[in-house]
Amino acid sequence: MKAGGAVEGGEVTKVPRGNRVFAIIDLILRIVAISGTLASAVAMGTTDETLPFFTQFIRFRAQYDDIPTFRVFVIVNATVCGYLVLSLAISTFHIVKSRAAKTRTVLIFLDSIMLAAVSAGASAAAAIVYLAHNGNASANWSAICQQFQNFCERTSGSLIGSFGAALIFILLIFLSAIALCRL
């Protein structure tokens, strides 16, 4: 048997060396996505701003949990972050055993579900952030970002990591599909 080959039915077949490279890139992308979703969840979850009114007894307060869409955003990003941490074990397994087809198929399926979840959460939160910045004259909703600037900056910034994680999930799905085709 040659080095780098596997025996199938008495024949020596070549194991694609690129699958190990794909597995290492997969692991790195998952770590980057973990940092993006965790930063998004923490940034949104700690968003809070209080404005004093005419007196010190009357205050206006804006918190992320005042808006249910932002709560869903935090929950989705935390869930996706937890999934990514758990999927690191499978990604590490693919570095060691690059011919694992069943686990790659499972990862493609689960990554697709997480892509849908993080895209839905980020898109819904982006709609609320848009309303906070611009308001809606037809519904008589005024923009609140002139008063709550710090609140709006943090909520807008938290969307970056979440949409970045969605882009990384797209790359992970393509990467796993290419590695699966090469087996």
From TrEMBL:
Boundaries of each Casparian strip membrane protein domain copy? 20-167
Transmembrane regions: 21-44, 72-96, 108-132, 159-181
In the bilayer, the protein is annotated as:
Multi-pass membrane protein
Q: What does the UniProt keyword field contain? A: Cell membrane, Membrane, Transmembrane, Transmembrane helix
Q: Which InterPro entries match?
A: CASP/CASPL, CASP_dom, CASPL
The domain of life for this entry's organism is: Eukaryota
| Main localization of the protein described in the UniProt heading | membrane
Q: Does the keyword Transmembrane apply?
A: yes
Q: Which GO terms describe its cellular component?
A: plasma membrane
- Enumerate the subcellular locations listed in this protein's record, separating them with semicolons: Cell membrane
Q: How does it assemble?
A: Homodimer and heterodimers.
- Which family does the similarity line name? Belongs to the Casparian strip membrane proteins (CASP) family.
This protein's name: CASP-like protein
Q: Which organism is it from?
A: Fraxinus pennsylvanica
